[in-house]
Amino acid sequence: TKMRYVTAIERMAEERGIEQGIEQGIAQNARKNIRQILSIRFVEISENVDVQEKITVKLNETTDVQLLDMLFQQALLVPSLDEFIRTIDKIKERQDQIAEKSSNTLE
Question: Is 71:62 a contact under the CB 8 Å cutoff?
């Protein structure tokens, strides 16, 4: 059997795909950990499906692993679930502003 020749571009694309998969796995695990911490710390989350869904949606919108790390720390430290939700909103707002600035720079 002949081995197929793999170009440098194909190899780079494959490596990038693997890196993206790893990043997605890390982000998914971070979201799960955040939800677990919140459900342990704040009983009301397990009693309110709307709040669970709201937090899940907000966490799923956050793809940056560093931001998820920040949210993980906040999940451990915030005094209330409402404060955590406000923290997500603030972080998301900053993330959107940064994205907007970088897209304006590229234009």
Answer: yes
pTM (2 d.p.):
0.76
> What does the pLDDT read at residue 17?
83
Report the C-alpha gap between 47 and 42 in whole angstroms. 10
Distant-in-sequence contacts of 5-10, Cβ < 8 A, 24+ apart = none
Q: How far is CA 35 from the centre of its chain?
A: 12
Q: CA of 5: how far to CAs of 9, 10, 11, 13, in Å?
A: 12, 10, 10, 15
Q: What is the pLDDT of residues 91-104, one digit of tens each?
A: 888 777 877 887 77
The helix-helix angle for 81-106 and 49-61 (nearest 10°) equals 30
Give Cα separations from 82 to 12, 21, 29, 61, 98 (angstroms): 44, 32, 23, 18, 25
